[in-house]
TrEMBL record:
InterPro entries, sorted: Knr4/Smi1-like_sf
Source organism, top-level taxon: Bacteria
Designated name of the protein: Knr4/Smi1-like domain-containing protein
Amino acid sequence: MEELLLRVVPGLAEQWQGATPEEIAQIERIAGRPLPPFYRWFLARMGQSMGPLVYPFLDFSAQRLVSSYAEEVVEPEPRFLLIAYNSSRMMPMHLFYDLDAPTRADAMVTEREAQGHEDDLYDQFETLREMLAWDALYQFRMREMPQQCKGTLSGDHPNLLSLIEPVMSHLGFKQSIATGPYCRLYERADAVMLCKGMPRQGVDQARSFGLGGTSDSALRKILGEIATATPLKVKVDEWAPALT
C-alpha cells in the first residue's frame, strides 16, 4: 500500500505527516478496543496531513477526530469509530469504521450522520485500504487519461470480479494491491481500471467500473475482451470526453 501511494501520488513523501503516538493512543481509548493494524499505519503516516491525497471536505486528522469526541459532536460507541469529519454545510455525512466488521487487518468504512442510527448506514468500502487506493488511482491516474468511461459489470456468480482476473492478466494488467470481493484495482502503463461494489447492500450481481486509457478504441478492446472471455455483461454508461 505504501509503495502504491508513494508511486502514484506526486510529492506525498514530502508532504504527509503522521499523528503522534499520544494522539493514536487517544483514538484507541475512544474506540475502546485495539485499532485495526492498517488504521494504525495510516495514522502513523498521515494522521496529521494527507498531503496531496487530502479530500475536499473530509478531515481524517487525529486532532479533528479527538476534538469531535471532546466537543461531543460525536458520542463514543462500541461499534463505530469516527475516522473522517465532513465539514460540508449541506447534510454532512461523516466516515466511520464499523469495528464489528473487521476485514484483513482493517475494517468496513461506512457513511452516516454524526449522531446517526445503526440502520442509517451507507457502506462505502470493505476496508479503508481499498478506499484510499481507489481514490489515489482515480485522482492521480485515471483522471489523467485522455479517454475514460464508466459502467457496470453484471452476472450471476458468487464472486463476479474473480472472473476478470485471468483476462486482465492476459491483457498485461497488474493488481495495484490485494483486495476483497467488492473491489479490484488494475494498472498497466497506458491504462487503469477500477472496480467497486457496495458491501452489505444486498445487491451482489453487479460491480461498477471506471476505465481510463489512451483512446476509446483501446478501452473498447479491453471491455470487449472481458465481454468475450467471461459470462459477464458489460455496460458502458458514460464516456469522458463524450464520443462524437
